[in-house]
């Protein structure tokens, strides 16, 4: 709790009133006026110091004036002043032939290109081997042979192995007399290709094909890769006879898979086991009864 304020007495009140009526007098000091000291100057415009200032001010030390050094000593030879180099003139550009001559040269080069002919003949990737003993490498491909050749376009649904079998059958039946069989196939094989397949053969490196075996190997590597071999091997190992499929239809389908993939590298015992296990139970019983 706060203490109540003290009430002043009557005497204190009278003293306060007396001080208000007679306030104390404040002492005011008037500042002294500013005093300026006059300076005197000589004829040269320098200020003349008073005796009191001369005794207190330090005497400046004057250094002797520097004598200007001569630019050229009389005992030394006078330097030779090199005149400024004048800028060399820009090189003269070679004279360009007149526009008419340039036009004539271009027209001449265009005429040469238009007259140039494409080298014909077989693809540069094919190099024919020496013919076998008693066989001839120089013979003519008859039109009847060329018209009988199967055509392979390089599409995904085409069978490369089937094309090779059909091609070799035509060459064997219509082989010219005395002609080397391998050279005949190498010469006739480009005529059995079309579209992308023919482009592939012409785009092979020069000298890549040196025999009919290398031709077949390169062709199968391109259009019958290892992925197709793996797929057909799986179909052979997992073949099954359908419920509405006869025994003859099942046998033909199995042989068709074998023909599509001669590179299956499966033993005959393995193929026989896959064929037997894929039969329906009734067909299997009939086959066991027939075998005794």
In words, what does this structure look like?
Among the domains are: 143-224; 227-291, no CATH class. It contains 12 helices and 2 strands, in the order H-E-E-H-H-H-H-H-H-H-H-H-H-H. It has helices at residues 10-21, 51-56, 99-115, 143-148, 160-173, 181-188, 196-202, 212-223, 226-237, 247-260, 268-277, 281-291; strands at residues 40-41, 47-48. A hairpin with a 5-residue loop joins strand 1 (40-41) and strand 2. Helix 5 packs across helix 6 (181-188).
Quick structural overview:
The protein is mainly alpha-helical and 292 residues long.
Shape, per Cα inertia axes? elongated
Rg calculated over all Cα atoms: 61 Å
Uncertain segments are 69-74
Helix proportion = 40-55%
Question: How much beta, percentage-wise?
Answer: under 5%
Structure keywords:
single chain; 292 residues; mainly alpha; 44% helix; elongated
Explain the layout of strands and helices.
Elements: H1 10-21, E1 40-41, E2 47-48, H2 51-56, H3 99-115, H4 143-148, H5 160-173, H6 181-188, H7 196-202, H8 212-223, H9 226-237, H10 247-260, H11 268-277, H12 281-291
Antiparallel strand pairs: 1-2
């Amino acid at each position: 709790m706060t203490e109540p304020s003290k009430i002043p007495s009557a005497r204190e009140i009278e003293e306060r009133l007396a001080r208000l009526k007679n306030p104390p007098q404040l002492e005011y000091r008037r500042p002294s006026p500013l005093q300026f000291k006059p300076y005197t100057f000589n004829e040269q415009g320098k200020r003349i110091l008073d005796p009191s200032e001369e005794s207190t001010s330090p005497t400046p030390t004057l250094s002797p004036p520097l004598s200007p050094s001569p630019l050229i000593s009389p005992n030394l030879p006078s330097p030779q002043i090199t005149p400024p180099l004048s800028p060399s003139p820009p090189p003269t550009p070679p004279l360009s032939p007149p526009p008419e001559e340039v036009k004539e040269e271009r027209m001449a080069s265009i005429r040469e290109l238009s007259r140039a002919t494409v080298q014909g003949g077989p693809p540069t990737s094919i190099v024919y081997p020496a013919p076998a003993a008693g066989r001839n490498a120089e013979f003519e491909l008859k039109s009847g042979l060329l018209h009988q050749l199967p055509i392979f376009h390089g599409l995904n649904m085409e069978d490369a192995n089937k094309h090779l079998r059909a091609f070799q059958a035509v060459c064997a039946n219509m082989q010219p007399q005395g002609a080397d069989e391998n050279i005949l196939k190498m010469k006739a094989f480009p005529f059995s290709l079309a579209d992308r397949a023919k482009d592939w053969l012409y785009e092979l490196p020069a000298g890549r094909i040196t025999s009919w075996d290398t031709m077949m190997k390169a062709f199968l590597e391109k259009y019958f890769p290892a992925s197709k071999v793996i797929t057909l091997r799986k179909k052979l190992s997992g073949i099954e006879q359908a419920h509405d499929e006869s025994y003859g239809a099942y046998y033909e389908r199995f042989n068709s898979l074998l023909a599509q993939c001669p590179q299956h590298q499966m033993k005959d015992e393995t193929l026989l086991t896959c064929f037997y296990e894929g039969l329906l139970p009734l067909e299997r019983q009939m086959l066991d009864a027939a075998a005794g």
